[in-house]
């Protein structure tokens, strides 16, 4: 058994079939370079060689670099440089062979795999939706380091190459052909190698890459071409507007692409290596790889799912056809779950279904759905005012108003619809699941399913375990959430759960800055610079100040009813100090005509000049402190959730924060942010912030022990 | 200081629209310079062998403006072969920088007679033709936070609360003053007609001035930097100015400096050099200054540079009779006026670059000639000349009529 299978035919064409042993896909691991080097040695020495075909024995062509290796890279040192240079050297030798080299792409060729294709003289791809090509490195905080930036720029020209390099799009065969990323498409796998050989026979001298030919000109012109100059001048700022300077990978990709055109090809490849090893060692790459690759993979593969047989819902009922209810109904229908959409008023229920019609119309307009699929989807939703027959529904989700009495009544009334195995979910964002569970006959089958608005875009569900919720119910809920294509984050019942609690600290910190005397525009800009999708003042207006106040009142009432002090929002002092008077002044938020902002008739917002009255301090708060306050406040609250057992794993903390409340993705999530800063550095800075700004930043030292060593939570 | 630097003369070409339909477009950049070299020689029957150096500013010194054009122009104009030449680039300050350096050389006593000034044929070698890492190396642009100057100009207006009407009103006044000065013949001493090889006049007077403009016409123009701002440059600038909610894009082609072709030439020398060539000095250089300020807003350098020059001379703004701030953008002039508390009647008394245009490398020399003429005509003593400069630099010169 060997990694590279050599087969020479009567015409002198050698087919090298990659079949890396002990793994399901070919990767650029430690065995790759020595293996390829041996192949190059043999090809260069082979008498009567007329051409080379690269093929794969796996279902994919080649998967690219080994992310475990990259994650283990600590510094950009000589050794990393030599390792990457060696990997690139075999590609360079391949394209310098005196015979044509063809890549026969039978399946996905991504990253290092597509870079092998770029080092070939011709790329022939199988017409299969799985045979995607592309350079997705940027999505992992990296750049294509095996010549991908330099060669794609030379192949397509700057303007056409940049989007593929900066966005990391995976491209289907037909699109790849149109873009010039591949040269030919064949219809069946059997035709791949014959087509490759036929091309070699027809083009026996086509072995010099365009960029190695005398008089080579970049498609679309060099960096002095007027259009390219315009692109170059604008591109840095366009990129900054998107990344806010938080993502080094696209910045370096842009720099390599542009500057590669100004230098010798081999020098450009070396420059690409230098940028690549720097990124390998960066905290941003580690964050992206840990969270978005390994973390996502862990959740998708069920690493944090309770054990047991897979469960599938075939029928569902959603109670309350408001924004949330209709969104949930749509998500279910899209995955083929028969959904009863129940409201007290049939017109409301029908409006809920109309929401789906609107979403479908949009999808059709964008070419993402056809009419048959729309009809099938809409056919799944039945608006109603009455319960379904008893014992017929696998999952009931209540999404009625956040009123405990109403919810208790609805839960009792609708429970009988459930099949004996069915589960009952509540979409509450505030009310304790353990209390609501008491309204049903079997609290073990009751669970929180907290969706986020807008449901069709926020693909994450916070699953809340009540005190009596069974593991069996959790397993079913977990499978249901994945069945509808959402990411499950499991938390234990606690006031504000995880997401609302941390989000509350974000909004409050914005107001703390306001009270401290920071200019409102600067607060919003600090949040932008921190990487938050929307500033705290704007978010408060969207959520509405009044809703925030209602939630606080609800918790106070619950405390009274239960005779406890939950301490919910204990640190959110600025929220009370600012929003209560604003509500009294009639500034309840956007839907109430204005809040932190004034809105003109076209919805254009301008900060309300009256905000100055809330400044108690006159502190000159630097933008760095403000950015840190916004990030640390949320990270600390997330850490508290882990410490208190509200959250079970770091991965869920990281992904949940990013997907549900917009914690900046470049950090890899709130806990990964602490790791990226360095736990000790974070602790020191938090202590400093606590001294400067208050106890809400105070964290007991032992809490950090959670993150030190190999904790179970690291999933 | 060892010696006083005297100004013996300052001349310039007319300025004309720096596009293909501008009157001077047909004139090669080198011929703008040889026109002035020939005039300077003939006007004073100058023994050019006495000149120690000729330094001329140019901001896009490539292609037709490249390869040390000043030295080649000296040869072409028939100046003595002993005269060296250099091209100098300090962005928009280039022309004034050569003037200041000439003064410093003379004051040091190391040289006796030096010519300064500059040239720029923006119609033939467009602004930015020299590329450079400032805007065209992504790594550099990202690290330094590059934004086009107009974003900085709009940011100044936003920070100071100046509306579109405020900047347009300033522009209108510039046009009125420039038109009046031209009609009155106030520029005639310094402006040298550009002729063809047969002696036929191609352009005798500034023809960029729009004497028929009004607030309505100015108000109809579209903001130049709203587009680039939305593309991402506003975000870059606001990262440094977080207290600003959004940038108010007020600058248009109507209230920004005009893109034009033109050249200037100034002769600076010691007292003895003047005696030797038989010329009386028109003025003297009192002090000079260079500085640099926050580079993203880029255009707030003139105030600090002026204060530095005043301090060097032991003067205050009250000792200055006329102030000339290059009108790169209306907000730049308004900001200088506010920084130094300059009354309207002392500021840019014959209009400025909004009306007449800003031939980048040449402008500094143009401003020296304008101020000398006005000090003489009004029988005033001192003028302060200052300019905003790329990269946040600022430059100033104080001159005195004799």
Features:
heterodimer; A: 715 residues; alpha/beta; 2-enoyl-CoA Hydratase, Chain A, domain 1; Rossmann fold; N-(1-d-carboxylethyl)-l-norvaline Dehydrogenase, domain 2; 3 domains; 28 helices; 18 strands; disordered C terminus; B: alpha+beta; Peroxisomal Thiolase, Chain A, domain 1; ten-stranded mixed β-sheet
Structure, described:
The complex is a heterodimer of chains A (715) and B (402). Chain A is α/β, with parallel strands linked by helices and 715 residues long. Chain A folds into three domains: 4-205 and 217-281, 2-enoyl-CoA Hydratase, Chain A, domain 1 (Alpha-Beta Complex), CATH 3.90.226; 315-492, Rossmann fold (3-Layer(aba) Sandwich), CATH 3.40.50; 499-645 and 649-714, N-(1-d-carboxylethyl)-l-norvaline Dehydrogenase, domain 2. Chain A has 28 helices and 18 strands. In chain A, helix 1 (32-45) packs parallel to helix 3, helix 6 runs antiparallel to helix 10 (248-260) and helix 19 (499-516) crosses helix 23. The radius of gyration of chain A is 29 Å and the shape is globular. The two termini of chain A are 35 Å apart. Chain B has helices spanning 29-44, 69-76, 94-108, 133-136, 138-144, 149-160, 164-183, 215-219, 226-240, 271-277, 302-313, 330-340, 353-356, 363-378, and strands spanning 6-12, 16-17, 53-57, 85-88, 113-121, 194-195, 201-203, 260-269, 283-292, 322-325, 382-389, 393-401. Chain B contains 14 helices and twelve strands. Chain B has one domain (1-123, 138-397): Thiolase/Chalcone synthase (Peroxisomal Thiolase, Chain A, domain 1), CATH 3.40.47.10. The longest helix of chain B has 20 residues, at 164-183. Chain B has 402 residues and is of the alpha+beta class. In chain B, the strands form two sheets. In chain B, strands 1, 2, 3, 4, 5, 8, 9, 10, 11 and 12 form a ten-stranded mixed sheet that branches. In chain B, strands 6-7 form a two-stranded antiparallel sheet. The mean pLDDT of chain B is 97. The chains are: A alpha/beta (715), B alpha+beta (402). The interface between A and B is medium-sized, with 33 and 23 residues. Chain B: It holds the Pfam family Thiolase_C. Chain B: One of its GO terms (molecular function) is acetyl-CoA C-acyltransferase activity. Chain B: Belongs to the thiolase-like superfamily. Thiolase family. Chain B: Residues 281-401 form the Thiolase C-terminal domain. Chain B: The active site is at 92 (acyl-thioester intermediate), 358 (proton acceptor), 388 (proton acceptor).
